[in-house]
Amino acid sequence: MTDLPTLQRLLQELRLKGMDSALERVLIQAEQQGLSIQEILYELLLEERRHRQERSLSYRISQAKLPYDWTLESFPFPRQPSLDKSWIMTLSGLSFIQRGDNIVLIGEPGTGKTGLAIGLMRKALVQGYRGRFYKVQDLLDELYASLADRSNSRLLKRLSNFDVLLLDELGYLTLNQEQMNMFFRLMDERYTKGKATMITTNLVYDKWYDILKPKSMVDALLDRLKHRCVTITIKGESLRRPAA
Description:
Layout: H1 4-13, H2 17-33, H3 37-64, H4 85-91, H5 95-99, E1 102-107, H6 113-126, E2 131-135, H7 136-148, H8 152-161, E3 164-170, H9 177-193, E4 196-201, H10 215-227, E5 229-234
Parallel strand pairs: 1-4, 1-5, 2-3, 3-4
Helix pairs in contact: 1-2, 2-3, 7-8, 7-9, 8-9, 9-10
């Protein structure tokens, strides 16, 4: 009769880590409850699937580069009465990703734009979508640097394939024409592929012309962005202030 250590070594060799970690427990359960071979196998396969799902989620979260562990459940909705919580929770169903809709969150600093966007991103990651967080300035710098080593096409392809891209703080920028060209190419490719992009900004759309040039390119950018877009405007005090 094959002993437990032999079975564990074989599972480790096959890299079935979920089954390996659960094997002893499942065998004890089988002995106590009189489980059939089919039931034992089913329990072990469930553990292997759970382990792989957790590992996959951990990888997606690490790749997304989220700077904070914020969630929609922890967002202080009572402190931002201008927000329709039911609408935000509807968005958390993630149908906007399936449709390729964009989300633009507009509000003064500290009003919770980034927190909401990260909360939606985290929901997407849990459901198996691939995403990436960027400060807009960092993205522009990375796009510009890719021109020097001619990796721009590869970078654009990678960024345009994310299910959802979160671009934070559009409004605090210094950019040149090459960066604007690359930014437009990225947004155009994501629009063409029907990929969802979330943008947080303290600027209403008319003010985008103050930081992005030339006007004709900004017109084209906004035309694509707003074609399939949910705009959320937050009017309230900074959440960084102590609660009353």
